[in-house]
Amino acid sequence: MLPTPVKSVVMVLLTSMAMGFAPATYAKEAWFEVEVYLFSRNVNANDIQEALPEKAVVPNTSNSLNLKTEAGQAGVHNSNKAYLLAGNGQFSQYINSINRERGTAGLLHLTWRQNMQSRPSSTPIHLFGGRDFTSQYDLMGNKVMAGGDLALDTLTVQDSAQDGPQVQSGAVITAGNGQVINQAEVLPMGIAPQLQPNVWQLDGNLLIYLDHFLYIETNLVLRVEGEKINLQEAVHSFSNQDASVMETSSANPLAFSGSVSGNNAPSAVPSPYLYAVPMKQNRRVRSNELHYFDNPRFGMLIQIRKLN
Q1: For residue 18, what are the domain limits?
Q2: Residue 21 located in a structural domain
Q3: Domain total for the chain?
Q4: Tens digit of pLDDT for each residue in 22-54?
Q5: Residue 97 φ/ψ, nearest 5 degrees
Q6: What is the C-alpha separation between 145 and 222, in angstroms, rounded?
Q7: Quick check: 211 pLDDT over 90?
Q8: What is the pLDDT of residue 50?
Q9: DSSP 89-156
Q10: How many helices (H) and strands (E) does the chain have?
Q11: Which one, of 190, 203, 216, lies nearest residue 62 by Cα?
């Protein structure tokens, strides 16, 4: 059941949706103002039926638009690209209502303008914010090794259409100058760090396009700290232990008797792990209405306002 403040926002949405849909007609250039607010929920895992994903699936943001770094200075419209707006937008009432609910925390609040086009011609917007876990976890969700290097196991990179390439096991991510990325940068929400990739709490793509109707397509992940049993690591530890025992027994047969069992068996000890909880949805919407995208662990409010 939704919390009361969030429920009040949803009631506003249901009332507006009851009006139905009608195809919209737009000029060749169809500029809209978009406002989005994302927030997380601190929920008990036992209260959620959906299991946490075992494999880290990361949205491919390499071809996405970073509103701050790629669209010029905030509030300046100097191209056909989407551009960021300064100010607090029009969501203050809804944000205050959501924030009154215990356990919710804001992740990102942005307002921008963009020229809506067909899906093939549209560029996804890269959304990211919340905590920066770069100094603690790699993109696979594993704890960063001693020394801060980001050693990756096989990582699935995914965009909104299909699975992307995989990073080969054992790769170490470095910056363009060869420097190993081993330090988190504390930056305002929505501002890209100089070194990539950063492991943000919220990360992914938001694609808005026009096909007679307006459509919103989300491919986002929320990273959640937890624990995970690494069976491969347990087997590796057991193999090393077995080899050490056998070496000792060969050098001094009286020092060891019996087999590797009981207390010597591999132990599956949970390790800290950063889960990536997905929100992948595609929805037809109407302009000027408030829309709510929901996930048990995080939510998104969005409004697309037509400009005269």
Answers
A1: 4-131+186-221+280-306
A2: yes
A3: 2
A4: 444 455 689 999 999 999 998 776 667 778 888
A5: -65, -45
A6: 22
A7: yes
A8: 76
A9: TT-HHHHHHHHTSTTEEEEEEEEEEEE---TTT---EEEEEEEE-TTTB-TTSBBPPTTS--EE--EE
A10: 3, 14
A11: 203
